[in-house]
TrEMBL record:
PROSITE patterns: C2 (PS50004). Coiled coil: none annotated. This is C2 domain-containing protein. It comes from the Eukaryota. Gene3D superfamilies: C2 domain (2.60.40.150).
Amino acid sequence: MEARYFYFTVHSARDLIDVRHFGEMKVYAKVSIAGMSKYTEVDLVNKTNPEWNTRFRFFVPEEDIIREDVDAVIELFCRRSFLDDKYVGELNLTLRPFYKGECNFSVRRNDSNRNESFGTLKFSHELGDKILVVRDSSSSSSSSKNFSDIIDILKFGLEVVKVGMEVAKIMN
């Protein structure tokens, strides 16, 4: 199966609604593409106008790119010390992979029926090189849902290699 690297950069957010009653906003973003989720660092300084400039690399099936069907969910959360992190808002998008440049979109809340903005999020994305992923011939489909299984296997393999390297350091 062919896939591509897909680079997604979360730049910043502006004018987010302050979801804290006490304390200051410390916001981070969770980006989910092709069944994988990655997180920015928490911005401890900029409160309702966080800046991350964090670039992520995802693997996306080539067939999704050809169909221009790359779904992305960007969720924003406020880090809290003693309770679960608090939901700030999100974007649900179908990206146009061949578009290259910065985008600004309004942040929405899934718990609000109102069609109002809860701030704006700035991001960019671009396609990378094509790669070949070898699949078991008994697999039924090459959709992005099955693709996440391959990614999980690769991540597990990387963890095994890391542990092996740490053991080798200890032994030497």
